[in-house]
Amino acid sequence: MRPIVTAAEIADVDIRAQEEAKIPALLLMESAGLQAWQCLKGRLTDTDASLLFLAGAGNNGGDALVVSRYAYNDGYTNQTICLLDGRISPSSAVQRRIIEGYGIVMIEGKDVDQAVAHADWVIDGIAGTGLKGPLRPEASELVSLVNRSGVPVFSIDIPSGLGDLVAIDAPSVTATLTVTMGALKSAMFHPKTHGRCGEIVVVNPSFPPPMIEGLPTVAQIDDEALSLPPLKADDYKNSRGHVAIFGGSRAYSGALRLAGRSAFASRAGLVTLCCDEEIMEIAASEAPSVMVRSSHAVDPSPFDVLLVGPGWGSGRRALLRELFLSKKPMVLDADGITALAELIAAEGVPAHGPLIITPHLGELRRLASALGIADDHTPSGFFAMIEEMAGSLDALLVVKSSLVHIVGPTEGILVYEGSNPSLGVAGSGDVLGAIIAALWATSRDGLSAARGGVQVHQEAGRRAHEAEGYYDSERLIEYVARVVMEAER
Question: 409 FRET partner, CA 20 to 30 A, in 41, 160, 434, 467?
Answer without folding.
Answer: 434
